[in-house]
Cytosol non-specific dipeptidase
Amino acid sequence: MNNLSNLEPKEVFRWFYEINQHPRSSGNEKEVSDFLVQFAKDRNLEVYQDEILNVIIKKPGTPGYENSEPLIIQGHMDMVCVKTDDSNHNFDTDPIEMIVEGDVLRANNTTLGGDDGIAVAYGLAILDADDIPHPPLELLVTTNEETGMDGAMALTADHLTGTRLLNLDTEVEGEFLVSCSGGSNIDLSFDIAREANSSKAYKLSISGLKGGHSGVEIDKQRANAIKLAARLLYLVKADVRLASFDGGIKHNAVPGNAEVVFATDKFDSLKEGLDALIADLKEEYRVEDPGLTINITEATADQVYTKDLSDSVIDMVMALPDGVQYMSKDIEGLVQTSLNNAVILEEDGKLVLTASVRSASSSSLREILNVVTIIANRMGAVAREYSAYPAWQYEAVSPLRDIAEKIYVDMYGKEPHITSIHAGLECGLLKGILPDTDMISYGPSIFDAHTPKEHMYISSVGRVWEYTKKLLAALK
């Protein structure tokens, strides 16, 4: 039973309910992709489905708009599938159970899938309607956005003719994104060389840091546990040997924890200096990271890194840039370029540090990647770049942005928030294959995305629907 049937706008929530009946975790989109294809066939609309299950549905312009410039409406069909520990929900088989509480729509102890199912629902509602004026439309629904934007990466321009594009994957109502950063991961690896240890071993533990997303929260200037460990180790480098170095969890998160096992015969004489630096670090980050905890306890280590390797690792991590590198010259308060030293661990006989570099400028991105590579090579590490994605660079002239802004002001009597995001969006990849396409990104407010607390305000969905219809009518 469709418990959203009485929600307004009915045409949008009808299709949001329908797509939430299909499994659509990243990598498991076949059923929902086929559903979109059948939707198009049932309405005699032109449709394409590629090998990676991206779908493009085309609809001619309405009377008076037949010769207008084509418009692409874009979102992704996959969702992050997370549930509470006590939930029995099976994302591979069970529909999303949705709950209406006043103006709030949420799921029952799972993610809701508003990111980015609501974009698909808007698109289907527009294609299904016969009373909404619009230019020729191309609804582009991509796959695997949440796990690396694989769908957009595999896309070609063969079936896309749109010169304007609305990406509906922004999660703050009234905010228009007009650019995003590109980025690349880079691994710095040492071959591990060990020898027997006869000295006492100690474990340096750093915890209690807030961490956060390495793109949108990098401007918080929070402490990086891996870098803090390097600062402490560098102080005593001459008298210690590393046995292990482990920190961070994900490439896109500022590491909040690190553990280093080291050996030394001179700990008693080193302790005073370490304690002083620990006190300094806690003072340095007392505002950004008041929960910072640093402990040094006794440990065991039968083997340690060779002296050369130990020194090289400490020197490299100490020397690497970290955090905000440059601020945007176009948008006040926006980070242009950043670097996050995200993860360090041992794997397959190597010690590997993974860094994530982001920038809205391709030249600035290349600069930082080159700096990291030079530092790594000088210390004897091998650098490998991978998972690169392009920036969507800010364009001073954007007719679509101007029209969208005017419609918003006319409807709400205030300016929208024109901004950018220091993270990757599919718009960056789409701009790569559609370089002459004018783009903006917006959407209704979605809160706590990627968590079981994800929810949307029903009224926000309605306002964005009315706005989108007005915008379509203006794109003649």
The two ends are 39 Å apart (CA to CA). Residues 267-284 form the longest helix (18 residues). The longest strand covers residues 335-347. DSSP finds eleven helices and 23 strands in the chain.
